[in-house]
Hints:
Elements: H1 2-20, H2 26-44, H3 51-58, H4 61-79, H5 83-94, H6 98-121
Amino acid sequence: MGETIMTRIINQYLAELRKALSGMTVSEREEIVDEIRTHIAERSAQPGITVEEVLRRLGPAEEIARDYTNGALLRRANRSRSPWFILRASYRWAKTGVQGSRYFSWRWSDIRAAQRLSSARS
Length: 122
């Protein structure tokens, strides 16, 4: 019976994660859910670590989804030529902390340099 309860808790957490990742493609979403499921299984198999402890350390599913979504947005921005897309992704990342603000500053200077170059050609 305990295993059924743990399975239910894990499935509920993964369902929340899946829902929070709704802006991603199905394949991206399922890859992330599978990765987190594997992480939960590996960690909770260690002696003295419960599923509840693993989930507590992971944090709310919405936060994990936000981190993965921001990461995916930044990967797309790095491949994009659109300054507005890059700016949007960089700003979103900048809101996440010091590492993000450094990235934002670096990308913003790239965008400004590209705009100056474009203006000089005109």
